[in-house]
Write a structure and sequence with these properties.
Strand content: 5-15%
Order of helices and strands: EHEH
Mean pLDDT: 76
Number of strands: 2
Number of helices: 2
Shape: globular
Strand order of the largest sheet: 1-2
Structural class: alpha+beta
Low-confidence stretches: none
Radius of gyration: 13 Å
Helix content: 40-55%
């Protein structure tokens, strides 16, 4: 896998809330996310890969642990 590394603003990383919200609502949960202000404004990463890294474990937790 080749990564296209570039500065990525954490506020621009797209997490599709609809996917999370649908699963959470089925379990009677609410869903939201926020970026800790202590984090840097941007990091060097592959934007698509970063989105996957953030999304997959979060969705799994809602599905399995709720």
């Amino acid at each position: 896998m080749e990564l296209d590394l570039a500065p990525v603003a954490l506020s621009d990383v797209y997490l599709d809330e609809r996917a999370f919200r649908h699963v959470a609502e089925q379990k009677g949960l609410s869903f939201g996310f926020e970026i800790d202000p202590a984090l840097p404004a941007s990091i060097i990463s592959g934007e698509q890969r970063l989105g996957q890294v953030l999304k997959n474990p979060s969705l799994e937790r809602v599905q399995v642990h709720a």
